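fwd from M.: "can u put these together and see what the complex looks like"

so here's what she sent:
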Amino acid sequence: MGMKHFFFRKKSREIAKDRLKILLISDRVNCSPEMMEMIKNDIAKVISKYMKIDTQTMEIQISKKGNKGHDNKTPMLYANIPILDLYSK
Amino acid sequence: MSEVIVVTSGKGGVGKTTTSANVGTGLAAMGKKVVLIDTDIGLRNLDVVMGLENRIVYNLVDVVENKCRIKQALIKDKRHQGLYLMPSAQTKDKTAVSPEQMVRMINQLRENFDYIILDCPAGIEQGFKNAIAGADRALVVTTPEVSAIRDADRIIGLLEANEFKQIDLIVNRLRPDMVRRGEMMSTEDVVDILSIPLIGIVPDDENVVISTNQGEPLVGNNTLAGRAYQNICYRVAGKEIPFIEFDKGISFWTKVSGIFHKN
């Protein structure tokens, strides 16, 4: 904790917003963090059959499709999977 | 045509009863015939907020159990013509009434009133189900806090599952000074997260406590909360009223003119 921490401290308004956004997504789809971890591992296993991926930094998350009202609230599963090497045949 | 509005929040203590009392009183002051129904069986409070606690003879459970007629249970307001309260029972519990019984009672009341306002209990159990059963639209009350917003989101989901066509948001107890310092979520933040239409912003105002102490709703009074509730009433009745911008800084000239306009 130094000067940097003091000057760049995130305001609690932003912290609350960030926490809520993540919390509500899992509330809405009724999906626990453990289940997300299982999904992540399974996806990694399947993709690994075809290409070399970085399983350490890959991440998956569920988020809202858009922000334009409730009709457009279909949740989406996003996966960011860094590819280390595409297998060449 | 009458409209049945449920005031709900999920979390307790965010201002459902105060909102019910003020919206009901405000609509009655606009010349509408209004009945306020306290659906919190076992923990009734709308009667004290309205200052009518000494006039209760019969209650909602008595009506449902056919121990009295609806008219006998309705308490006429002290100040406003056309405003009535149906008190809840204090000694019974939530299971004393079923959603079907609520619907039946509300349909009878529709014949005589323009607005039927249901003050919903906290939680999502039987009491909540009773309160939403006969309603056409909902006012969801929340404060700009993580816990209240989370519960409001859950409630909105349940209302949508019950095919509510109109669900509007009231952001209660906003502290503009804290929003300006970045230590409280703004109205825009809350609307962004919950993504339902906004119908009112009520600033945190000590006058609410004072008015509750006195048992007289402050809607229409020249206080911040009084004006905010008045605007909500207009919007509920379908008028387009611009939102008071509490989040913005007060300009020098507004302050100066404020000094001269004080009585």
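replying to her w this: Residues 77 and 84 of chain A are 22 Å apart (CA to CA).
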